[in-house]
Design brief:
Length: 556
Amino acid sequence: MKKVRIRSALMLLCSLFLIFLLAACNSDKGANGTTPPADSTNTDKDGNKGQAEDPNAKKLTLKWFVNGSNNSNLPPKDKDFVKQVIEEKFNVDLQIEHMQVGADFITKLNLMMAGRDVPDMFMSDGATSNTYIKDGLTLDMTGLVTPEKMPNYFKYWVQEDELERYKVQNKFMRAPVPFAKQQYVSYYVRKDWIDNLKAKGVNVDIPTNYDEMIEVMKAFTFEDPDNNGKNDTKGFTTIGNGTLPYVYWPEYLKNGLYGLGLVDDQLVDGYSDLKIEQVLDDIRKVIDMKVVDEDWFLQKTGEDINKAAQGKAGIFWGAARTAALDNDPNSVQFKTKEILRSAGKAEEAEKVDWQPFHPFADTGVATEALPGNPFMFGKDTPIENVERTLQILDWMASEEGFLLVRYGQEGVHYKRDGNTITVDADAYKRDVIDQGDFLNIYQFFATADEPQVFGLDVVRPTETDRDRAILEHVRTYKYLPSIGTNVAPPEGYNLADFRNQLYSVLTKILFEEKDASNWPQYREELMEKYGGRAVFEAYAEQMSKAHGRDITFRDK
């Protein structure tokens, strides 16, 4: 009996211990029996409860390689108020390299990738980003770039369906930077040169069609439009980057081509369509007239603007909102005046007047906007660096970040009255433009100067009535339908190989052959041997799904 009583007592004690243990476990749960979120409070070794651990408590070094004007430079840190805000707000050491996206940018980025010196975040162009994804060099952004983690990016700039259509290789490894919906594509002409020619009895005016444009190019070349008594001006300048004649030549639109387009439910590729034969013959005719800057093919981005500003050519193509505004230091208007003043020609400088025109303003000057250059992460980028970078990018996409990187510091570079932002031009020049015009670099993620998305109206005292008239005129241009979605080549296909071979053929025809009559044969080889047809048919299939109707590739 004694043994039985002892055994019963032990069982009772075990039962009581189990009850107390369960009660203790439940005491750490909420009223509904669920464990409180881990970030609600922290308890120190003395049992004191405090706030959640700051996810940014650890200072990180972030390296970015982004698209930025080659004419801009980052100032010392004590003058870089954007860097100061970002580093303090997000507890980072931010290291930025920048170049204008183009051939040199891609060459440098390729070297970084090959040397395993991959930035934490980098930008690219479309074709190169596709190659990196195909080669497995980039990070999957699934679960990282989301409306929950980047609310401002999705609320104001990029829709979820746009992001979905931006995928390539059926993988989410790139995302578009915020992009402008309003475009400012235009040609610009020296109206003061036209006025000089008119005074000499030459019958020219701002062109309204292609033929008139050619006539002005001739007059600018042969009629001494700057009245210096020398044969030192050309009608037209552009860039080729040593690669090809870009669609900046008006001969593309003259023949109904411009990049990738959608015409009568057919996908049309502006660089490989059968009509390229006539485009190349038309370009050759203009070159043979001796009215084009001889350096055009090797010129890189921005060098055409410099040629125009130096008074060596009277027409160029531009896409920047500020291309010819009076007081923007990067505008051709500003640069031309500065060059003339420095040469002691103040009176001539005051007469400079670059004006917009487009020979196809009423029929279509370009395709409608689609997401442009992507941002990406290397596959081995530490996840904490990725997440911290995304926090910063989303802040840059917010109203607060947008205002700082576009217009500077409130109360210093602009004043705010309700929803009206008034820029202080003098302060902006002193602290931004004279310090390397450095906000142009941070604007890689605020490329769209569209404050209206936040319900804001910006008053720019430096913009003149002439400027406003230019912008109003350019906004009247018609745009052609875009393909409506970002497309990607078939998985495993290297689009760059096709494009490089295509551009080589176009250049060969233009410079080495008497005409473009061999284009159909060259094209068929490109379509078959280099897989062009399969690519464009794949594009058409993707477009059909996006548009909900049958779209085919124009191959004849």
